[in-house]
Amino acid sequence: MEEKELNTEERIIQAAEKILLKEGYAGARMQQIADEAQINKAMLHYYYKSKEKLMEKIFSKKFNEFIPKVAEVIQSGATFEVVLRYYIDNYLDLLEKNPYLPLFLIDTMHRNPEFINQIPELPGKVFVAGIEQQIAQHKLPPIKPYHLLLNIIGLCVFPVLARPIFKKVFQLTDEEYQIILKERKEEVYHFILDAVKNRE
Amino acid sequence: MEEKELNTEERIIQAAEKILLKEGYAGARMQQIADEAQINKAMLHYYYKSKEKLMEKIFSKKFNEFIPKVAEVIQSGATFEVVLRYYIDNYLDLLEKNPYLPLFLIDTMHRNPEFINQIPELPGKVFVAGIEQQIAQHKLPPIKPYHLLLNIIGLCVFPVLARPIFKKVFQLTDEEYQIILKERKEEVYHFILDAVKNRE
DNA sequence: TTTTGTACCAACCAAATGGTTAAACCAACT
DNA sequence: AGTTGGTTTAACCATTTGGTTGGTACAAAA
Known about the structure:
Two copies of one chain form a homodimer.
Chain A: H1 8-27, H2 30-36, H3 41-47, H4 51-66, H5 71-74, H6 80-97, H7 101-111, H8 124-136, H9 145-161, H10 163-169, H11 174-199
Helix pairs in contact in A: 1-2, 1-7, 4-7, 6-9, 6-11, 9-11
The first copy, chain A, binds a DNA duplex through helix 3.
């Protein structure tokens, strides 16, 4: 409710997040970020030498918020059902709170790939190994790990990305679309489970 | 192979498509488009009064290329399997030829929603009615049409959008990712069919 | 032959934009 | 009181950017 009294640096980060996520790197203006942080434009450059440095900071921060730390969970021995629920619930909650996040990351990685390089290596192979292990133990039907992951994440993320197109094509209000998104937790969970079970 | 001798307007459209799709509205530069079309920047404004008008043209053109005209097919009485194959094959072919298209449309609709308004109404309701009819005739198990459509399109489109992220996380080469995309026609088709069948 | 209209361009312009400077402010130490 | 060092600002700067101007070239119409 009440605006916390944040120090300048925190206000800059908050403002930069808001503006960069909404407008993208090319569309965001340093002045806009300064206004949002209620500081002078020169202050921005005092704390962050350049727009690029600021973007680096926000991008890596958001990237790390988005990439889930579930590699361990998949190896925890839990059933696929449990892991899937955990995944989907976490992702959809995150997406509900951060509707601009996927577009921001995807857009940045496509159009400003230079920002990817500062990201450290990620344990993708671990996830693949985890899935393959579950398949070997017959806890999962044979499916290529990449495809399974693309399916799970795509089914979660796409509705957030496609919101404007679907709203337009089906002439939905924001409230109606919100309901659809709420329904997704069950829909995606059962859809994936049904697809995977039927493969056995 | 050989560069056709196109007239100026065609060259402008081609150039604008290339640059706008790749860079987005905010990132694209009129000079860049002029260079690509091998004309003077003033020529751009001779044919298209402003960047906005040019974007309007390209956006509506691309939007109409992307939104499929399958509403009739779904009502054609064909089985769900046939319609699904048709959908998926068409979409994935289109996406393979136009990898920048989904990001361009999604990005534009999120960040420049003013361009949506010039798009005429679309027969989304017809699709919904078609699906509901198939469900009533027990040709399809009960599933909310919006969800079915989100699932189908999401599973097709997301891998194209997520390419950079997946390449990074799993350290894939372009060739490796290309193979994954090729596999998708079968993967998506069976995944959806299995999920839907299991619902009955 | 003259007029007219379309295609085209070099040079230009005003505004916007990322970034800098030099000085002021201010709390903490000496 | 005076110095120091981080913080803040108004004013400024160089470049980029979308867009304009005034004019040329040229072919078709009159």
